[in-house]
Amino acid sequence: MATGSFNPFHMAQKQFDRAADVLKLDQGTRELLRNPLREYHFSIPVRMDDGSVKVFKGFRVQHNDARGPSKGGIRFHPQETVDTVKALSMWMTWKCAVVDIPLGGAKGGVICDPHNLSMREQEQICRGWVRQLSRDVGPNTDVPAPDVMTSAQHMLWMLDEYETIYREHKPGLITGKPVGMGGSLGRTEATGYGVIYTLREALKELGLIPEKTTASVQGFGNVSQYAIELYNLIGGKVVCVSCWDQTDQTSYSFVKKDGIDLAELRGITDRFGGIDKDKARDKGYDVLDGGEWLKQEVDVLMPCALENQISADTVVDIPKSVKVIAEGANGPTTPEADDILKERGIFVIPDFLANAGGVTCSYFEQVQSNMNYFWEKDEVLGKLDLKMTAAFQAVVDLAKKRDLFMRDAAYLIAINRVAQSCKDRGWV
Ligand code: NAD
Question: How far, in Å, from the CA of 39 to the mean position of ligand 1?
């Protein structure tokens, strides 16, 4: 969802170029990795409930599959653009590489607003998306998953369409399936919990005790809610969350200085992560402008909504108290803002490391689906914690050894792994 003149793909390329310079990548490898391998654009005609036909625009971008089948979510959003999808597909490649799972990177999207679509119309979009791509995705080719405004139900419709076309069971096509239909326990929690596994390690690095820290979170959807759940469990206190208000077409921040009550807020939140502001006021929350989440005097900021939120314009709003930024969302910080965070010595856990819990658990889902043997939730989350902690440690070790910003260290590890696979395959 590119906003204004901001182009997330240019940002992703800029981040890549910086790391490629440090790694002294050769020209061929650079050209290969700074663009996607394949890009699909297609139309999805849907018979609407009122009898008319509406044509939706769909995308799938496969950035790189040298390390394994490409992997990445599908977003439904009215402002979706192919450049956002391209950027996200590239970040998926680095994300899978940094946590060292045998998958590449992809991303998909449909320009649509599920708020204004019936479930039947959404089902038709899902089935149409698969019909357009049935030869180009698959368990050993490219494996989609849920993302912004798509759910386990959407994934199951997509799987059903795929299996209908191929007339056999192929649960490895897609992840994020409902539990009991090939889904993994722990997947719902995985991204948010993963953010906190890495935050917990970052706090240790900085000598901070979780119980003595406070946080402010942008977004109140899947990633945010589970990040808050685990952060509370390790003793942290969240004083502010923000969300998008569909009716007013703007965002709001909800502040409670003595700590938000997660269960209470969940009870007044719709399935898109929108909090009812009148009910929130009744429950004692201050309802402020959407940008206020960034200005809170907290130790930790967790952007868990959208890209391009911490920019050259907004980075100045971050108070001195902030020591850590754990990026739950993809691409929330622009390179210009990064330079300022670096100067200020703020410890950033970069998006493709912090939010890699989702794809790591998706990988576990594939493994379980292939074995047709499903693990208990504790086992899934235990394995996730090990993987995230090991990935964080590798990045922080390199950052310390070479005096690098965390994002740069994570890029060096990820890009180096992918470049090496491309080389080993003889592509470059
Ligand atoms: P979601 O749709 O469940 O929730 C999004 C939240 O962001 C909602 O609360 C919404 O109201 C809020 N929001 C939207 N626009 C906003 C704005 N302008 N200001 C403040 N809040 C706003 O989505 P999610 O699954 O939680 O994903 C959030 C981010 O995390 C995205 O960048 C996504 O790509 C990334 N991510 C998600 C996963 C996953 O497993 N769900 C994995 C990796 C990365």
Answer: 24
CA of 355, closest atom in ligand 1: 43
Q: Which of 75, 76, 147 to mutate to test the pocket of ligand 1 (most atoms within 8 A of CB)?
A: 147
Q: Of ligand 1's atoms, which has the minimum distance to the CA of residue 190? A: 40
Tell me which residue of 140, 146, 1, 132 sits closest to 78, measured CA to CA.
1
Q: What's the longest Cα–Cα distance across the chain?
A: 63
**Opening angle at CA 339, ends 403 and 8, nearest 5:** 115
Instruction: State if residue 145 touches ligand 1 by the CB under 6 angstroms criterion.
Output: no
pTM of this prediction exceeds 0.85: yes
Per-residue pLDDT of the chain (428 residues; tens, 9 = 90+): 444 567 889 989 998 998 999 999 999 999 999 999 999 999 999 999 999 999 999 999 999 999 999 999 999 999 999 999 999 999 999 999 999 999 999 999 999 999 999 999 999 999 999 999 999 999 999 999 998 899 999 999 999 999 999 999 999 999 999 999 999 999 989 999 999 999 999 999 999 999 999 999 999 999 999 999 999 999 999 999 999 998 999 999 999 999 999 999 999 999 889 999 999 999 999 999 999 999 999 999 999 998 889 999 999 999 999 999 999 998 899 989 999 999 999 999 999 999 999 999 999 999 998 888 999 999 999 999 999 999 999 999 999 999 999 999 999 999 999 999 999 999 99
**CB-based contact 408:23 (threshold 8 Å):** no
Q: Which residues, 6 or more positions from 86, have their beta carbon under 8 angstroms from its beta carbon?
A: 9, 12, 36, 39, 61, 63, 107
